[in-house]
Amino acid sequence: MDRNTALLWSWLNVLTKRRYDAIREVYGDLESSTKHVSEEFLRGLGCKEETARETLMRMEAFDAEMYEKDLAKRSLTFLTIEDSDYPSRLHELPDPPIFLYARGDLAILEQPLIALVGTREISAYGRRVVQEFTPAFVSAGMVTVSGLAAGIDAEVAVQTIKSGGRTVAVLGHGLGMIFPQSNTALAKEIVEEGGLLLTEFALDISPGKFTFPARNRIIAGLGLGTVVLEAGEGSGAIITADLALEYGRDVFAVPGQIFDPHYAGCHGLITKGHAKLVTTPQEVLEEIGVVTSTREVVSSYTPTTPDEEAVFAALTTMPQQVDDVVERTGLDAPRVGVALTMMEIAGAAKNVGGGMWVKG
C-alpha cells in the first residue's frame, strides 16, 4: 500500500475492515479510490452525513509531509494490514484494524501474550489479585496486554515491569496524547523497559465512547487468553471478555465476594459459562497450554555457542516445532538440533512431545 495513501486513510479515521474490503472490490486498491472520495462515496460506505462532512474536512486539512515529521518526532512506527510485519494474531480477527501506530518493540507481539483486564475502580482485593497473577505470567515468559486505563490496567503494567517483564498497552486514542494524563510517566516507562504502546488511531484522535470498545477488540485479539481480574457489571473488561470469546480465545474470571459489586461482572461471566473460574495464575497457564519453567534453572544457563544463544532467544514457554525455531533463528535444522540437544542436557530446553520444544 502506498504510504501517503495509507497515512491519509488512517488520518480520515473511517476505514473498517468491511469498508476496506468494499473499496478494494470496486477500485482494486486504496490509491485508486482516493480521487473518488466525496460525500456520496462516504455515504455509500455507510458513513452518516455528519461523519462524511467531517471526513472531507479532515481530508482537505491533511498534510502528508507534516504528518510524517510528527510521526518521526514521536518515534512512531506506522503499519498497515498489508505489511509483512503486521501482527499475525490480529490477522486472524474478523474485524482487524487496518492501520496501527506503535512506539516500542513490535517484536514482542509475536511472543506469547496474555490479556489482563479489569475495572478502573480498583479495590484493595483487586490490587492483590493483580500482584498475585502478573508476576506468575511474567515468570512463565509471557507478555502482558492491557489498556493503560486507571485501575487494573495501570497496575498490570506496574507489576509487569516490577517483575522484570514486558507489557503491551493498547490505547483508545491517538499517540499524540496519553489518557489518563496521570499515566504519562508509566507509558514512557513501558517503552523504556522493552514494552510497547499500540493504537489504531491517528495522532490527534481523542478518547471517546466508540474508541475504547474498538481498543478492547485489539486487546482480546492479541491475547492467547483474557483474564478478567476485577470487573463490575457493564465494565469495559466484560466487553473485552465477550470479544475474546467471539474470537475463540480462552476467557477466565477471578471471583470475589458475592456481595461485592466490583466483582459482579466476573460472577456474571462465570454464571453464564462465558469464563472459567480461576483462583491461581497456574490454572490459566495450564488451560492455555503454557509450560511453566523453573526460572532458577534457566537463569543459571549460559549459552556456550552462538547457535545456542540464538536458539535460546527463540524459545519461549509456548511449544514450538523445530521448523519454527529454524525460521526464527535463520539456522539450518541440523544446527538447531545440535543446539537443542546440548541445551536439553543443560536443562535450558525441554522436548514436550510431538517434536515440540520449550524453554527448560
Could you characterize what this model shows?
This protein is an alpha/beta fold. It folds into 3 domains: 3-73, no CATH class; 106-288, 3-Layer(aba) Sandwich (Rossmann fold), CATH 3.40.50; 295-359, Winged helix-like DNA-binding domain superfamily/Winged helix DNA-binding domain (Arc Repressor Mutant, subunit A). It is built from 18 helices and 12 strands. It has helices at residues 3-12, 17-27, 30-33, 39-44, 49-61, 64-73, 88-91, 124-139, 152-162, 184-192, 211-222, 236-246, 264-271, 281-288, 295-299, 306-314, 322-329, 333-346; strands at residues 77-80, 99-104, 113-118, 143-146, 167-170, 196-199, 225-230, 250-253, 276-277, 320-321, 349-353, 356-359. The strands form 2 sheets. Strands 1-2-6-5-4-3-7-8-9 form a 9-stranded mixed β-sheet, with helices on both faces. The protein has a 3-stranded antiparallel β-sheet with strand order 10-12-11. The longest helix has 16 residues, at 124-139. It is globular. The chain starts with a helix and ends with a strand. Mean pLDDT is 92; it is low at 293-298.
